[in-house]
Amino acid sequence: MDLSVVVPTLNGRDRLAASLDSLAAYAPDAEIVVVNGPSADGTTGMVRERDDVDVLVEISARTLNVARNAGIEAASGDAIAFLGQDFVIEESWLGAVVEGLADADVVTGPTHQTLRVGMTTDEPERREIAHRRVTYFSGNNVAFRAETLGAIDGFDEYLETGGARDAAHRVAGMDATVRWQPRMCVRREYEADGGVEEHDWGWKYRALTYRLVKNYGLRPTVVRRTLSHAASDAVSTAKDVVGGNAAPTTWFGTGRDVVAGIATGASDGLVARARDRTTARNPHGLSKRADRAVARYDWR
Predict the structure, then answer these.
(1) Runs of H (alpha helix) within 76-216
(2) How far is residue 114's CA from residue 120's CA, in Å, rounded to a whole number?
(3) CA contacts within 13 A on the Cβ side of 78
(4) Residue 159 and which of 67, 231, 267, 286 are 20 to 30 A apart at CA?
């Protein structure tokens, strides 16, 4: 198996360097494709000075799914993995990828996060939606057979968030197999920023509704799941207001953004569903454009 690893990056030079160091140590024979765009922190110079990167693609868009698709275009392997710029692979990662793709179309594994008080990890997430068994995967740690990526036409570039979850629905829709490999581990080191996590509620619900409507249509299951998410977030925001961690106007603003996101996502999802009636369900996919890269450095 010839493995390509695509690493999208944006203004993360030091973290990217650590990620590339781990690939050089534990997957030295893999083809490494870095998709940069557009960074303003010297990432391009750092990558060009390394001898362990095979392709550097510069793009003008700041959208992660555009970067992923640009990486697919540049990759030559019959298996393509995606690794987030904030993550390093562990020693067992490569063997788990090879083993998993021997009898599955997609393989994914856990993310370890190093904290001051220890280490966290995650477990496989699976859902049944409209009689479809969906196994979710993180876009920061997943590997596909190249023909599987071709069958789903890569990632949906409409989405600014939730691209990997959308891909999981589409993979399930064509009955492709997703295998969870506990040894396919990546790690993100703890970084304290002292800030409060901010949510773009409008895009969260726009993306959620879009991918559900696009993949399943306007059926009761879709409506129920969307409203369940909205109710849960409404309760959480209300608790913040009561606890003095947020202003009352925050609750109303969140509600407005959620409603607008749902309306826009549902409308755009219906349009997307009509535009692509194939199993790929990807009217904004890999094959739809050829102008992602503004520069390309190929050292193969």
Answers:
(1) 93-101, 146-151, 163-173, 201-216
(2) 7
(3) 5
(4) 231
Phi, psi torsion values for 48, nearest 5 degrees:
-70, -20
**pLDDT digits over 227-261, tens only?**
888 787 767 766 665 666 666 666 567 778 899 99
Distance between CA atoms of residues 161 and 228, nearest Å: 19
Q: Which structural domain range is residue 189 located in?
A: 3-193+284-298
Can you tell me whether residue 9 is helix, strand or coil? strand
CA–CA distance, 206 with 63 (Å, rounded to integer): 16
Contact (CB, 8 A) for 6 and 54: no
pLDDT digits (tens, 9 = 90+) for 1-19: 999 999 999 999 999 999 9
User: Which CATH number goes with the domain that contains 166?
Assistant: 3.90.550.10
Residues 267, 209: Cα–Cα separation, whole Å? 9
